[in-house]
């Protein structure tokens, strides 16, 4: 209990520090030197940054602070899920690294493509603010492709269940292709595809 509270305080302080320093912060993922442009999102013990390499190519970098062994296991599991698939509707992992922090914690850095159009939730908000709605044909197109990504997870041996499918976890790539992300809640050791659907 105390460890969880301390971990929460550490993550909060880290997020405050980032707000001040991330414009000049740099990170390394194996051989890649990356400059942090800005903080895109944060939640719990994870932070997502817009970063760019020496050639000014932009990426999204997810940083996970793992203070406890259980958190490290979950982060490693998320990396494993990413590495298990090469599918147009599932978020690819370009590279990743694990580094030790001064406090002895592990810091996981997951480098992924940048999707400038944001999430399906962002799209819905933009349309609502403009007094518009998502056209039925486009909605069906997006839904069908999200189902293709889910099918890939359910077809794994053993089948896996995502368990956190929502508009905020669906990015939009070029050509209006939805990309399912955030594999931290993926359930392993599902007994069958039917069970994966139930857990969905």
From TrEMBL:
Gene3D superfamilies the record matches: Transferase(Phosphotransferase) domain 1 (1.10.510.10)
Signal sequence, start to end: 1-24
InterPro entries xref list: Kinase-like_dom_sf, Prot_kinase_dom
Listed PROSITE patterns: PROTEIN_KINASE_DOM
Keywords of this entry: Nucleotide-binding, Signal
Pfam families, alphabetized: Pkinase (PF00069)
UniProt domain Protein kinase: residue ranges: 34-200
Entry's Gene Ontology molecular function annotations: ATP binding; protein serine/threonine kinase activity
A GO CC annotation given for this chain: cytoplasm
SUPFAM superfamilies per the UniProt record, alphabetical: Protein kinase-like (PK-like)
Cross-referenced PANTHER family: LD17053P, SERINE/THREONINE PROTEIN KINASE
Official protein name in the record: Protein kinase domain-containing protein
Organism: Emiliania huxleyi (strain CCMP1516)
Higher taxonomy: Eukaryota, Haptista, Haptophyta, Prymnesiophyceae, Isochrysidales
